[in-house]
Amino acid sequence: MPRDGAGPDFIEALARGLDVITAFKAGRPVMTLAEVAATTGLARPTARRILLTLAELGYVRAGERGFTLTPRVLDLGVAYVDALGLWDIARPHLERLVERTGESCSVAQLDGSDIVYVARVAVPKIVSLTVQIGTRFPALPTSLGKVQLAALAPDELERILAEPTRSGLTARWRPDREERDAALREVRARGWALTDEQLAPGIRSVAAPLRDGEGRVIAGVNVNCHAAETSVAHLVEHHLPLLLQAAGDISADFASRERLPRVTAPAS
């Protein structure tokens, strides 16, 4: 069935194929044909053709218990990260920040009303949420989301927050508009954002914006810690200055990379 609002150039088959790929989640890495059809809302014959096509392309593998994704799916996300160049630029700075704070550090970007992690250097600690490249959380209750939402124009902010989250996580902090606007005004005034167990119990973090050569906010970088181990005072007094320095260094390196001339190889 065609989607509501799809224009004349919309390719329904491609959208259905992506729906099948994203149907596989951490809680359901193996799915039968019936489960894929039920999850995506596709007819079984349609789901079957899509699964067999994805298998032929190497993105899905058929087994005794059902279908699973293959590592080739990672190419889709890695292509984005590589094209942006943020991981290569941020990595040494994140590694240095982890060494100096002893905490996990990440870079994430807005995707609708969510954030998606695009770079991360982690330390082994037991926390209530698992985070890796590609992890998606609602933006507003995260420090990484707040520093990016605070940079948006009012109309754009409302449009983005009106989009439904695709993270599957219900955050602890769900403010009304007045409380939300007050929180984002504070972030704009300070230039950084704090989250104290607003996303989930035990999760505390501080984030700073990353900017391109024209000063536009393109991502956020944070230091994440366990609330039982690190106080808000220590997070702000010790970790925040190191984070702000790292954010400035990453932004400067990103701006320098943007200024490099683009070299195009001549056609053979």
UniProtKB/TrEMBL annotation:
**Source superkingdom:** Bacteria
- Occurrences of domain HTH iclR-type (ranges): 11-71
Instruction: Give the UniProt keywords, A-Z.
Output: DNA-binding, Transcription, Transcription regulation
Domain IclR-ED as annotated: residue spans: 72-256
**Name under which the protein is recorded:** IclR family transcriptional regulator C-terminal domain-containing protein
Q: Which organism is it from?
A: Actinomycetospora chibensis
